[in-house]
Amino acid sequence: MRTTPDAAGRYTIAKAFAFNASHELRQLPAEHKCARNHGHNYTVTVTVTADRLDEYGFVTDFGDLAAFGDYLAQNFDHRLLNDVVSFPPTSELLAAHLGRWFIEHVEPTIHGRLVSIQVSETPTSFAVWERTLPDGA
Question: May I ask the CATH architecture of the domain 11-130?
Fold first, then answer.
C-alpha cells in the first residue's frame, strides 16, 4: 500500500547490467584499431519512467527487469557480437537494438515505460538511444 501520495511530476528509475564481449567494426578502414577484434566490459543502463507509481510505490520493481539481464547474459555475454547481431555492433546500434527488444519483451510486463538505453564500452565512453514518442503519448 502506498504511504505517500504521488506528487505532480514524473518518476524515473535506472538499472545497470553488465556483460563482456568482443566485436570487430569491419566497416571501418583496416588501419583503424576498432576494425580489429577487441573486447569491452559493457555496461547497459536501462531507464524507465512513469507518471504515477504503482500500488507499491514503484515505477516498476527492479526485479521485474531481470528478463532484460537474462537476455544480455544468454545472447551477448562472452560472445563475438558480430556473430550475434546482423548490423555493425557499434554502441549506438546496440543501444537501439536493445531498446527495441526491451519495448517488445519487457515493457508489456511492467508498470513503467522505457525512456532510454545507454551502452557503455568503458567507464568514460558510452552511447545513448532515447525513445521518442508522438506528441501527447
Answer: 2-Layer Sandwich (3.30)
